[in-house]
Design brief:
The chain has about 230 residues and is of the alpha/beta class. It folds into two domains: about 140 residues, no CATH class; about 70 residues, Histidine-containing Protein, Chain: A. Helices cover about 65% and strands about 10% of the residues. The protein contains eight helices and four strands; from the N terminus they run H-H-H-H-H-H-H-E-E-H-E-E. Strands 1, 2, 3 and 4 form a four-stranded mixed beta sheet that branches. Helix 1 packs parallel to helix 5. The longest helix is centred in the middle third of the chain and has 35 residues. The protein is globular and about 55 Å long.
Length: about 230
């Protein structure tokens, strides 16, 4: 496997270690259904965009579309039913999605190179899942040991100002999609303790600035870390 392929897999698998924000309460049935419908629509659109491609490029495109759908479903379930298991499920989904894409990319290689390529991609996925599973245990133990009084106090640190990371992420994504110049961009949103991280690809540097401005206006956002790049300049 060449260095470019290894780098691509490593980058994708790294997402499996991202902190998954969980909501303080489960979602309403309407919100959950709306989330499911949105995921289905986005997958249908992404898959349709692959129809203009051929051969391996089409297979890779379809794998990427399916991977995004799998991750989105896992993240939606994590927001609906927060907990260590749901958090792990998101990490596993990201690892599996990255592997599925990497495996398709391996098809471009010769028989011998392809075997080694797939084997290495599988090894990276396995390590990612193992690390995610290992991190789940101390997190679950810490949550169980945390006194109820302490949990209650943590929510009262900033009365009227506390906004859950998952809520922020959802609102930022929605705000980005509402912007005409950004709705077709490939923008990923992660939030940890009010700090929003944007990544992905846009058409221009103006779109990078616009995305940061949109995210910064959302209630609860403390700062915005922008790691987006302009397509063709990465």
């Amino acid at each position: 496997m060449n260095k470019l392929t290894i780098s691509a897999i490593a980058t994708a698998i790294t997402l499996a270690f991202s902190t998954v924000a969980t909501a303080a309460e489960t979602m309403s049935k309407d919100d959950h259904k709306a989330g499911q419908d949105k995921i289905a629509a986005e997958y249908k659109s992404a898959k349709a965009a692959c129809d203009s491609l051929t051969a391996n490029a089409k297979d890779v495109c379809q794998a990427e579309a399916k991977g995004k759908e799998k991750i989105a479903k896992a993240e939606l379930n994590a927001r609906n039913k927060p907990g260590a298991e749901s958090t792990y499920a998101v990490s596993a989904a990201k690892a599996e999605a990255a592997y599925d894409v990497a495996k398709q990319k391996c098809d471009e290689k010769t028989a011998e190179e392809k075997t080694a390529c797939v084997a290495e991609a599988k090894a990276v996925e396995t390590r990612a899942k193992a690390d995610a599973k290992a991190s789940k245990k101390p997190a679950a133990a810490a949550a169980a040991a945390k006194p109820a009084k302490e949990k209650s106090a943590s929510k009262k640190e900033s009365p009227g100002e506390y906004v859950d990371d998952a809520v922020i992420t959802t609102k930022v994504k929605a705000a980005v999609l509402e912007e005409e110049s950004l709705k077709s961009a490939e923008i990923n949103v992660e939030t940890y303790k009010g700090v929003v991280q944007l990544s992905g690809f846009v058409k221009s540097r103006a779109d990078i600035s616009k995305a940061s401005a949109v995210a910064g206006k959302i209630k609860g956002v403390k700062s915005v870390k922008n790691d987006m790049v302009v397509k063709g300049q990465q």
